């Protein structure tokens, strides 16, 4: 009976937005969800997206079903954007790409694939990680465990701990890695550290599983943000990459992304793709076309592509300015001599402030600053004008 259904807990990230909406204070700030806002704190639709949508109307595109694997032009464009068009893995036809329901849906599809074909394998995820990762593997019935990643003492990467844990895991585990702009910490390995991580993964016959939700958004450069993934592909490893266009093209609600599986032969890629389609068919049958056409139009048109890169640099640049301003204000106001420079070394949309649960609650209850309880704030939801207020709130919460 439905009467017996118990209430589900609110999502730790999306629940923050619900609480924000209920607050009537003028001072309120929503730094919970990672969504880009303009300096006026309004959502932003990229100009290239509007242009791509005009193109669709002009061409009189229809609304027929896509094939299970999605739009061909999108799948080609998305794989080339990620790996580089001249990448041998693409040239040799060793990449299986399936359009799916943004980053989340792509991760979920890969998780279902792991559950079927690697029933004894475990997934290793970073501690901490994006909250939804655990939900995704739990729902797909894929066992997971954590590897050390964040070191609160240095507010940096626990690189030795990470390598030890990856080494200690059973051979042939899947290692979930954030391609760039680690969520929630904003701390990424250096290129040298990526190489060492790849050494250990190769030694252990592990399979890398990249989650790329911020390509172009972290550094402002699409190629630079994909370099971690390309390092692993260059070594000839088989791997997964889930991609999302929520942030870098601002297509949050279009649910556009892909799962890419780099295989060791074109034949294996064909078989893997056939199985991914088999999983997608009874789950959602086929993906939505609108976002796929936007991506294909933007990437496929040299002038739109250039314009996209400029708009991405603009977004990434605004976040970097906000980051700098938060640091300046904190350093200014904090008379204790505490070093806040970790804020400047973190990259991407977020800053991991080091505020604990109680301090994060103070931010919300006293200052109307909405954020996740792990101390993460989305700088993309902040304006330069509000940085001083935020710094005051952080200092008050940190020391009281
Ligand atoms: N993975 C990470 C690490 C993320 O931060 C996000 C979004 O915030 C996603 C995946 C997926 O988002 P979406 O499903 O909107 O593509
Ligand atoms: O802010 C974050 O980390 C994300 C944002 O369907 C998000 O959780 C929100 C909704 C969604 C996927 C990602």
Automatic annotation (TrEMBL):
One of its GO terms (biological process) is amino acid metabolic process. It is an enzyme of class 2 (transferase). Its EC number is 2.6.1.1. Its cofactor is pyridoxal 5'-phosphate. Keywords: Aminotransferase, Pyridoxal phosphate, Transferase. The keyword Iron-sulfur does not apply. It comes from the Eukaryota. One of its GO terms (molecular function) is L-aspartate:2-oxoglutarate aminotransferase activity. Homodimer. Belongs to the class-I pyridoxal-phosphate-dependent aminotransferase family. This is aspartate transaminase.
């Amino acid at each position: 009976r439905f009467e017996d259904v118990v209430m589900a807990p609110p999502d730790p990230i999306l629940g923050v937005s619900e609480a924000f909406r209920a607050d009537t204070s003028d001072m309120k700030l929503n730094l919970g969800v990672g969504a880009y806002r303009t300096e006026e704190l309004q959502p932003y639709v990229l100009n290239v997206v509007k242009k791509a949508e005009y193109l669709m109307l002009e061409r009189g595109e229809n609304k027929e079903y896509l094939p299970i694997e999605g739009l061909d032009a999108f799948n080609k464009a998305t794989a080339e954007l990620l790996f580089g068009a001249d990448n041998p893995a693409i040239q040799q036809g060793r990449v299986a790409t399936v359009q799916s329901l943004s980053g989340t849906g792509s991760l979920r599809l890969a998780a279902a694939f792991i559950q079927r074909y690697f029933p004894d394998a475990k997934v290793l995820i970073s501690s901490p990680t994006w909250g939804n990762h655990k939900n995704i593997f739990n729902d797909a019935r894929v066992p997971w465990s954590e590897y050390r990643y964040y070191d609160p003492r240095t507010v940096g990467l626990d690189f030795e701990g990470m390598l030890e844990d990856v080494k200690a895991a059973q051979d042939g585990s899947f290692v979930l890695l954030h391609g760039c702009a680690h969520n929630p910490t904003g701390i990424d390995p250096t290129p040298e550290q990526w190489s060492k991580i790849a050494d250990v993964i190769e030694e252990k016959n592990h399979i890398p599983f990249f989650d790329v939700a911020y390509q172009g958004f972290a550094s402002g450069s699409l190629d630079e943000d994909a370099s971690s993934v390309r390092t692993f592909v260059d070594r000839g490893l088989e791997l997964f990459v889930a991609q999302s266009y929520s942030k870098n093209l601002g297509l949050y609600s279009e649910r556009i992304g892909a799962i890419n599986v780099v295989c060791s032969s074109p034949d294996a890629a064909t078989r893997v793709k056939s199985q991914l389609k088999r999983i997608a068919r009874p789950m959602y049958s086929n993906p939505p076309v609108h976002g796929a056409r936007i991506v294909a139009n933007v990437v496929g048109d040299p002038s739109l592509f250039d314009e996209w890169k400029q708009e991405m640099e603009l977004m990434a640049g605004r976040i970097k300015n906000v980051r700098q301003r938060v640091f300046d204000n904190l350093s200014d106001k904090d008379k204790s001599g505490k070093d806040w420079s970790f804020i400047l070394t973190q990259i991407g949309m977020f800053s991991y402030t080091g505020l604990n649960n109680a301090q994060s609650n103070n931010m919300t209850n006293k200052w109307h600053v909405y954020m996740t309880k792990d101390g993460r704030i989305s700088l993309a939801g902040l304006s330069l004008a509000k940085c001083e207020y935020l710094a005051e709130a952080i200092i008050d919460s940190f020391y009281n």
